[in-house]
Write a structure and sequence with these properties.
alpha+beta; Immunoglobulin-like; Neutral Protease, domain 2
Length: 479
């Protein structure tokens, strides 16, 4: 995620032994009583947002089928959630803000209620769910998403001509029920029906477009699992361009709500997407997904976002290539490798910002080392940049400029410390070992020390965990 101003399962193996109890010389064995089904927790365990995600379930896919009325900003439809129970469940939750009309579990009517200030949809199936069993949950709803807020966020971005569902760290609960945390990736299949003549853009590949009495239904599907906040859709009037670069299909779209000049410059920027991917692959290896693209909205989000396979952007003109670099670098760092908890956010934003520095040094600009030393030399020790603990900034500072700036400084300082060849081996090892999963700061530090053959604990301590300016030493990648 970035603003235009800032280049921005579980096998919990409780092998519980049944103890043989000898009573007065008898050889009988007492069996432990079966545990009663539990209510899955309302939260997956992230301290920044305790209600994010849910306990007791692992989602494999979402099949979303929505209608959106642009004029009234009303969203209605249903989502089918396929999940596995990870413990014996009397009930479980999904994260969802809208008014719910009906819930079924495996085709049988389930009771439901709203808890957690309206963020938690608590579902009680007709029969408890046994650990390890798979289930299909269908939720039907009809509401105005703009009415709702959560964690201080009012995320529905729409006018009467266009809508785009884009935000971080939360977006899904405004338009589909989900297990809304990076630890639970799933396949996302999206159908959205809009008035005839309007377009819908979403993640992945366009699978079909059907016009009927209700309007036109656009069907998009991404082949690879994704974190819920990375799923998006936009509806309105868009100009679409597509092609194929070195075997990789790309599709970009630009809002027709923009002026003619802004449409033209935005399309030029969006069409840089394949070129940027080619450059990133030289450093990071193969692009991790089967399609790529981008969308420029006519609305004013105030930031760009790394929606999986198709980032979304505000209108910033045709020359802001670094913004495209940032969001496409996130396809590796943030999308393919998601954070383990939100405290690990520098693994997304610091890495994407560093790849902007790398783009500059390989495209006629100053070197990443020069950028590091400019930051270091020009930011006073008393500045707020040095007061943020980058490895754990807290919910209020999760997107603080220090997470981006000091995060990218950490990587270039690491590059100076271990040498260029070892540094790129570290990044490629991280990508290979965490592919398709989640990564934590501790895991990255351990891997970097292993690959480099150096004890880097002191290095990471001063850059990521100490709220003060690192000393200007060779050990800190400076000096």
């Amino acid at each position: 995620m970035t603003t235009p101003a800032i280049s921005r399962t579980l096998l919990v193996g409780a092998l519980s032994a049944t103890l043989a109890v000898g009573v007065a010389g008898a050889s009988a064995t007492a069996e432990a009583p079966a545990s009663a089904p539990v209510d899955g927790s309302s939260g997956i365990g992230d301290p920044y947002w305790p209600l994010d995600g849910n306990g007791g379930i692992d989602v494999s896919s979402y099949r979303i089928d929505n209608d959106y009325a642009l004029g009234s900003k009303r969203l209605s439809g249903s989502t089918t959630v396929r999940l596995t129970a990870t413990e014996d469940l009397a009930s479980f939750s999904l994260d969802f803000l809208l008014k719910v009309a009906k819930v079924t579990v495996d085709g049988q009517k389930a009771t439901f209620s709203k808890t957690g200030g309206g963020h938690e949809l608590r579902i009680t199936p007709a029969e408890p769910l046994a650990a390890g069993t798979k289930h299909s949950v269908e939720v039907t709803y009809d509401d105005h998403p703009a009415k709702y807020s959560y964690a201080g966020e009012s995320n529905w971005l729409a006018n009467r001509s266009e809508v785009v569902a884009m935000n971080e760290p939360h977006m899904a609960p405004w338009w589909f029920p989900s297990n809304d945390h990076p630890l639970d990736k799933a396949i996302v299949d999206v159908k959205v029906t809009v008035p005839k003549g309007r377009e819908v853009i979403s993640n992945g590949e366009l699978k079909g477009r059907t016009t009927g009495k209700r309007g036109t239904t656009w069907h998009w599907r991404a082949d690879e699992p994704m974190v819920p906040y990375l799923a998006f859709f936009a509806a309105g009037d868009f100009t679409i361009a597509k092609g194929k670069e070195r075997g990789l299909p790309w599709l970009v779209a630009v809002s027709q709500q923009l002026s003619d000049a802004d449409q033209a410059s935005s399309m030029r920027l969006m069409k840089k997407t394949p070129t940027v991917i080619n450059a990133l692959e030289k450093d990071l290896g193969d692009y991790p997904f089967s399609v790529v693209g981008g969308l420029t909205t006519g609305l004013d989000p105030g930031f760009a976002l790394e929606n999986q396979t198709r980032p979304t952007y505000p209108s910033v003109g045709g020359s802001y290539t670094s913004l495209v670099v940032h969001e496409l670098a996130h396809q590796w760092f943030g999308d393919d490798i998601a954070v383990h908890h939100w405290s690990d956010i520098w693994l997304n934003e610091g890495f994407a910002s560093f790849m902007e520095w790398r783009w500059s040094e390989t495209h006629g600009g100053r070197s990443a080392d020069a950028t590091l030393r400019s930051y270091y030399g020009n930011v006073a020790a008393s500045a707020d940049l040095w007061k943020v603990v980058v490895s754990d900034p807290g919910a209020a500072k999760v997107f603080d400029s220090a997470v981006y700036g000091r995060g990218s400084m950490t990587l270039q300082a690491l590059r100076n410390r271990v040498g260029d060849d070892v540094f790129w081996k570290i990044l490629r090892t991280w990508i290979a070992e965490q592919k398709g999963g989640n990564g934590s700061t501790d895991e990255f530090e351990s891997m970097a020390s292993r690959v480099s053959g150096q004890d880097l604990s002191g290095f990471f301590q001063v850059w990521l965990r100490t709220p003060s300016k690192p000393a200007n030493t060779v050990e800190n990648g400076l000096g």
